[in-house]
Amino acid sequence: MKILHLGDLHIGKKVNGYSMIEDQKYIFEQMYKLIEEKKIEIVLIAGDIYDRSIPSEEATELLDELLSTLINEHKVKVVAISGNHDSSTRLDFSSKILEKQGLYIVGEYKKLVNRVSIDEVDFYLMPYVDPSTLRRKYRDILEERDI
Asked: Please, what is the angle between helix 21-38 and helix 57-68, to 10°?
């Protein structure tokens, strides 16, 4: 199984007021060629999919285009987690429905590890979670251990 690992896409990023969208589109086109050439079967996206928690319309459209192209045209599975720049709730939207299409995305931290199995290969996903959220969720355990 061939896997392409991506991270820190920061879709919608602006540098000194200049939108990087066109540059990101160009890079994605290069990536599609690589996927075909290398016969990639799974694309992992490790956080910071968007550049901010409330992405622009342009950024949302580009992510939709990226995922649609990967899954529908190139027939790859996509496994993704949220990063500290992403809105975990927004990325989690429709995740159960999208699994049937080949997109496995964990945006919100709900449990310590989320296992995704694809063709007998297990991926253990842990999206970004703020430390204060962990402290609240595991308060009893931390108090018990006197940490």
From this structure: 10
